[in-house]
Design goal:
Layout lengths: L5 E7 L2 E7 L22 E8 L2 E7 L9 E7 L6 E8 L4 E7 L2
Antiparallel strand pairs: 1-2, 2-5, 3-4, 3-6, 6-7
Length: 103
């Protein structure tokens, strides 16, 4: 299983800045192993962000995204104590979901 997603959400007025570090190997499928065989692609395909259970953002990724990708975005209408959840799906069908509270 992958590492938990690190989520930091800080509030300034009614806008929260959300920073996420997703723990994933993100293999592109272009690399070869020591024997010269291609390493199969394995990467996050879809990331969904929920604010208090409602969809706030959806990201579609491809194989060119780096290992352990970092994302940052602003979220308007946020209040201290609101919940931000991140859910992702990778090319092997693995899923992960993590949550944080806006501080």
């Amino acid at each position: 299983m992958s590492e938990p997603t690190r989520i930091r959400a800080t509030l300034a007025g009614d806008k929260a800045t959300v920073r996420m570090l997703l723990g994933h190997e993100m293999e592109s499928g272009q690399r070869k192993d020591a024997a010269g065989k291609p390493v199969p692609a394995w990467h996050i395909q879809t990331i969904s962000v929920l604010h208090n259970g409602r969809s706030a953002l959806t990201v579609h990724c491809g194989p060119a995204v780096s290992k352990n990708p970092f994302f940052q975005f602003g979220l308007r209408g946020a209040k201290a104590g609101d919940r931000v959840a991140v859910q992702w799906l990778d090319s092997r069908g693995a899923r992960r979901s993590d949550e944080a509270t806006i501080a």
